[in-house]
């Protein structure tokens, strides 16, 4: 019974993580809370991939809702055999969790690449990715941040938000991996049959 409870908790944890991903990704469109640069398309290219909104946001949210629904008792009777029913449920949960691994993993990679590339900002040389050739070295080169004159504080804005998104998608990735492992253990190690036998005894 502990494994079933664990599975429920893992699926539920994905919901707040997905909602936070959506919120934080939306903030990337409004540096310093202003829509000026979004309307003039003066934003980094990775922002327009919508990873935090679509992949680690809406898609993970949908997967979490489906997984929680599958774990409800109302789906226990889709087959005449209880063991057959639970096997199908586990198989579907594993497939959905693997999709979650793909979505969150992709988002985490894009966010990391965006953090390494640096912000799209205005400097003495005009609008450009002025830190793109530093391979992420600008992250600790604080004096160089002043080279970005517009939007104000864009370097700090991007670093904080992208770091949060990396952490959120990383947690989603771990949770989906744990979900796959839990369902595989249930299926391959015969946990369901143990539950049935325990109930009979």
Low-confidence stretches: 191-201
Provide the β-strand percentage band: under 5%
* Rounded average pLDDT: 81
Q: Characterize the biggest β-sheet.
A: 2 strands, antiparallel
Task: Please provide a written account of the structure.
This protein has 201 residues and is mainly alpha-helical. A two-stranded antiparallel sheet has the order 1-2. Strand 1 and strand 2 form a beta hairpin. Helix 1 packs antiparallel against helix 3 and helix 4 runs antiparallel to helix 5. It is elongated, with a radius of gyration of 22 Å. The C terminus is likely disordered.
Name the descriptors.
201 residues; mainly alpha; 3% strand; 6 helices; disordered C terminus
Secondary-structure map:
Elements (H helix, E strand, L loop, with lengths): L1 H26 L8 H4 L11 H20 L11 H36 L3 E3 L2 E3 L25 H35 L2 H10 L1
Antiparallel strand pairs: 1-2
Helix pairs in contact: 1-3, 1-5, 3-4, 4-5
């Amino acid at each position: 019974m502990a494994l079933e409870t664990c599975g429920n908790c893992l699926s539920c944890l994905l919901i707040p993580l997905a909602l936070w991903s959506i919120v934080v990704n939306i903030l990337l469109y409004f540096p310093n809370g202003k829509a000026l640069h979004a309307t003039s398309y003066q934003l980094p290219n990775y922002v327009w991939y919508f990873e935090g909104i679509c992949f680690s946001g809406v898609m993970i949210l949908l997967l979490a809702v489906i997984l929680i629904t599958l774990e409800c008792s109302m789906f226990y009777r889709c087959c005449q055999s209880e063991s057959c029913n639970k096997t199908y449920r586990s198989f579907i949960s594993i497939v959905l969790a693997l999709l979650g691994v793909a979505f969150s993993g992709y988002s985490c990679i894009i966010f990391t690449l965006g953090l390494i590339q640096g912000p799209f900002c205005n400097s003495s040389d005009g609008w450009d990715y002025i830190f793109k050739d530093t391979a992420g070295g600008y992250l600790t080169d604080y004096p160089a941040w002043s080279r970005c004159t517009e939007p104000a504080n864009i370097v700090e804005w991007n670093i904080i938000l992208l770091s949060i998104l990396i952490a959120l998608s990383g947690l989603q990735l771990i949770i989906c991996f744990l979900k796959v492992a839990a369902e595989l253990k249930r299926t391959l190690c015969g946990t369901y049959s143990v539950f049935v036998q325990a109930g009979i005894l």
